[in-house]
Structure formats: structure tokens, C-alpha cells
Amino acid sequence: MSDWHEVREELRAFALGLPEAREDHPWGDTVIKVGKKIFLFLGVDEPTDKWRPTFGVKLRSAAHGHALSVEGAAPSGYGLGRAGWVTVPFQSELPPVEVLLDWVEESYRAVAPKRAVKLLDELR
């Protein structure tokens, strides 16, 4: 998948398929939440002069360092980086989409209530 729109949509669709996940649009950005907690930041639908296409996930494993190794990736702003959040640009050379989906699932597991994680484990 070379088109960032396709990768973004695949991440979105995967995230929405996780137990109790839902889409929200605070601040005009697209986010995916489980309960009241965000586990995937997808930004706005189209880039502007002030925004480049990125996604953000919360990673606690070795995946955190892997995500930061993507060109242009950085700890997320607003203090989120200290909690393990990483912002990754879509227009960089990304790892295979399967790796990105693993990052989304790890982020989900980091914030989801135990009952939702249990549902996910039962589905796997």
C-alpha cells in the first residue's frame, strides 16, 4: 500500500473492528476510542498547510522504539509522549501494514478496559 489514504483507512477499519471501539471527532480530528479513551489518533481527513498526515498510537513494548525509528516520527505533543504516545507520519516509508496494525492493537490494549481486552482475546 503506497497511498497514505489507503493505509489510513486500513488502520481506521481495523481499529473500529476492535471490541467497543468507536470513532469520534474532537477538535475536528478523527480519533478512535474505546470507552472514553483514545487509542488511535488519525488527524484530519486531508492535509492542510498546517497539518501533515500522521497517526498516533500508545506503545509500551519494543514497538515504541521501532515506531520512533520511522523517519519523521516523534513522541506525541501535549505531554503524551511521556506516556508512550508516538506520532508517525503517513508519508514516510512505513513498516508493513501488519506491523502498523500490531501497533494499533497494542495501543488499544494499553487503554481499553479489561472486559474489552478479554473480548478481544476471546476473538483471537
Automatic annotation (TrEMBL):
InterPro entries, A to Z: YjbR-like_sf, YjbR/MT2646/Rv2570-like
Protein name: dGTPase
Organism whose genome encodes this protein: Nonomuraea aridisoli
